[in-house]
Design brief:
The chain is mainly beta. About 10% of the residues lie in helices and about 40% in strands. It starts with 6 loop residues before the first helix and ends with a strand.
């Protein structure tokens, strides 16, 4: 049974501040059923397969232990790809030096006292019978003993892994037995029996791989509000080491599971650790709050250009900006230029995440709506439903109501902001409210109203909240006192979620526009009456103005006439001069749209 060996990890935890205990919601977990109070990933039994040690890493190999006293142990590596801490101990620490395969051998033996048995037949006289000075030798590893022959000979060892011989000098290498042979010129040979250490009881071998494991990424920049998670991935570990990886972090607020997946719920920086094949690998994690492009900069008018300038990225990764020009907007070297009405999508990548920023070319009306939205956003108003009509306060429905009021629209009421539910009801009556289908969500435009329901409240569609869509899946809305007095309650948010129940469009660029201008055909003034006829209009009607001043600032009278008529007789006290002009109008949702004034005509 593998024994507990935790001293190394205690030192490691003190050095690096690792969380190596079992955790619930933070710190480090062990994998494959190994718990911290039982086994460590860097401890192996000598008879295990698939073990690995990293270059500059250290693992602990536990040898076989005999129950009785009187046994000794010896370790040997088959090459120099590893070094051994204490080859004469029962267990051994193995440090990786270079990538390769190594065989470790543990030899268990009964030690013998070193001794040299002289050969009684040996005479130094060359005419004496051929003989060696020693007939047998007991040596310890690394000991040297010199053999002498009374003739010129060549030397050889039956096992150079146990004993090597050079010019008669024997060097003990490892536990075992070997025979040293001396051969003269005639081919006659004599031998010496050598025992190193003692009598071998048993041997155990372990095939070990020296690895060079690496983390796939050593820098992690995490979007706290977008993608606050990631995975530590590695390559180059041994097969067994990959099953024993220990993951850790310098900060207990990082949740790290047994597969290397991590998640962050606080704004922090931390080191992430993977301990594999006896080596600690480290990655740095930095929480970032990047701004891929200012949301207000995505709304353009014809002729405007904006440079995409990503902000607050970590600097740990490369930030790339890409986009494809179209007929409406062009993209060139991070600059977007608006040429005609439409949308251009750009992609900003960095900090292990990607962001889409849609740039819109809009008309003057939509541009003004969005201008008013950001104007109130910049005012950092406080959130309050009771005080929603006061200057320094706002709630969700009064925010969008104020935006449209300041842009010249009426959202349900001219004088008082309705609730979000009543704003939706108003749009529904005007046939400007739709369900949040995929096609409708894909067709969102700047200025659209997003209605949400988080609970049943008995109001229209149980609507509890409203926000103003801006661009790129983001919206502006006032919600709760979450941001406090310092930041204001109007904030950017993600527009589409499971609570979205309706989408409204108070202003539609395609349909909500002024009709074509009309023109006066004839004017006749008679007995305090003026009869005016004009060309037919496709709008809702025309507005007529009569005045005794060409500048229309003296005794001016204004009337509206339905589009069903093309003439009207107006009661008007005539004088020598009566000036008349008209313009077509169209009644929209929350606003009336007017054409330009016609040429001024004088009554005759």
């Amino acid at each position: 049974m593998r024994k507990k060996w935790i001293g190394f990890f205690i030192v490691l935890s003190l050095m690096f501040g690792l969380n190596i205990g079992p955790v619930h919601g933070a710190g480090t977990k062990w994998v494959s059923g190994f718990s911290t109070n039982q086994k460590t990933a860097s401890t192996y039994d000598v008879d295990e397969e698939g073990a690995g040690v990293a270059i500059d890493g250290t693992i602990h190999v536990q040898g076989i232990e005999k129950d009785d006293d009187g046994y000794a142990y010896a370790w040997q590596a088959s090459n120099d790809d590893v070094t051994l801490s204490d080859p004469s101990a029962k267990d051994v620490d193995v440090k990786g030096v270079s990538v390769g395969d190594v065989t470790l051998t543990q030899t268990i033996y009964q030690p013998l006292a070193t001794s040299q048995t002289p050969n009684s037949s040996y005479r130094e006289d060359t005419d004496a019978p051929f003989a060696l000075n020693l007939s047998s030798v007991v040596m310890m590893p690394n000991d040297t003993v010199t053999l002498k022959a009374n003739k010129t000979v060549t030397w050889s060892s039956s096992d150079e892994n146990i004993v090597k011989v050079n010019a008669g000098q024997m060097t003990a290498i490892s536990i075992g037995q070997a025979v040293i042979t001396a051969t003269d010129a005639s081919g006659q040979s004599v031998t010496c029996h050598v025992i190193v250490g003692g009598n071998v009881v048993e041997t155990h071998t372990m095939n070990l791989t020296v690895t060079n494991p690496q983390l796939h990424d050593v820098l992690y920049a995490i979007q706290f509000y977008e993608a606050n998670y990631g995975t530590l991935q590695m390559e180059g570990a041994s097969s067994e080491g990959a099953e024993r990886v220990i993951y850790g972090t310098s900060n207990p607020n990082v949740i790290l599971d047994e597969e290397g997946n991590f998640r962050v719920y606080k704004n922090l920086d931390a080191d992430l650790y993977a301990y594999v094949d006896g080596k600690l690998l480290t990655a740095k994690m930095k929480i970032t709050h990047p701004i891929p492009a200012s949301l207000r900069d995505t709304i353009l008018k014809k002729g405007m250009s904006k440079t995409i300038n990503p902000l607050r990225f970590s600097g740990l990764t490369t930030v790339d900006v890409s986009g494809t020009s179209n007929d409406a907007l062009t993209f060139d070297q991070n600059v977007v230029t608006a040429n005609d009405y439409g949308k251009l999508s750009t992609m900003i990548t960095g900090d292990n995440a990607s962001f889409v920023r849609d740039f819109w070319c809009v008309n003057d009306t939509t541009y003004n709506i969005m201008k008013q939205a950001f104007k109130i956003y910049d005012q950092k108003r406080h959130y309050s439903q009771p005080k929603r009509t006061q200057k320094r306060y706002v709630d969700c429905s009064s925010y969008v109501w104020r935006v449209y009021k300041q842009a010249g629209f009426t959202l349900g009421s001219k004088y008082y902001p309705p609730t979000a539910a009543e704003e939706a009801r108003f749009l529904s009556k005007k046939k400007r409210l739709s369900a949040p289908t995929k096609s409708r969500i894909d067709a969102l435009k700047p200025g659209d109203l997003l209605f949400y329901s988080s609970k049943k409240n008995g109001r229209y569609k149980n609507i509890t909240h409203v926000e103003l869509y801006v661009s790129s899946g983001a919206s502006l809305g006032a919600s709760g006192p979450y941001y406090g007095d310092e930041g204001g309650c109007v904030a950017q948010g993600t527009s589409v979620n499971s609570n979205l129940v309706a989408i409204g469009r108070l202003y539609d660029e395609k349909t909500d526009r002024a009709p074509r201008a009309s023109k006066i055909k004839s004017i006749k003034a008679k007995k305090n009456k003026v009869k005016v006829s004009w060309a037919k209009t496709l709008g809702s009607g025309v507005t007529l103005q009569l005045s005794q001043s060409k500048a229309f600032n003296k005794k001016t009278k204004t009337i509206k006439v339905s589009r069903l008529k093309t003439s009207s007789t107006i009661a008007y006290t005539t004088s020598k001069k009566v000036y008349v002009r008209l313009r077509a109008y169209k009644a929209g949702v929350g606003r009336t749209y007017y054409s330009s004034w016609s040429s001024v005509r004088r009554a005759k």
